Sequence to fold (153 residues):
Amino acid sequence: MRPTKAAKARAARPAALVWEAPARVGRTRAVHAPAQAGRLTTQTITPGQARAIRKGYGVNRHDFGRLLGYSERMIASWETGEQGPGRDVQRRYRELASLHRELAAIMKARSIPEWFQTPNAGLKGLTPIEAIERGNIHWLWWMAYGIRAGVAS
Fold:
């Protein structure tokens, strides 16, 4: 029996993606295979990870609370394990951890805390903390992308 065109097309797809029909009738969607799931995971942020992310930026709980939009007390309760952060906050923690990894790839990790609290002309005179607090984290991503691409001056 010869393979059909559909079978050949499935075999030609990259191994990292698995195609699966949704439970309800309708369009198909791409589901990332476990090999890629490590980066896209929605696992709970542990208290140790929460503390490590904050300390990586070299800020106190009050300033980190400004980044997340929560009080110093809530940050403390997440870092001590007294209470777990909600899904939105966990997503924000993961985004800040990813940004830190990107920044560490273009500058010394020990320089990030000082840079994070210094006004920057590329951020319209704001500190990176203020830019994130005002909802402009994408400015930092674009800055990091420009530096990696050799576009930034």
Summary: Strands lie at 17-20, 29-32.
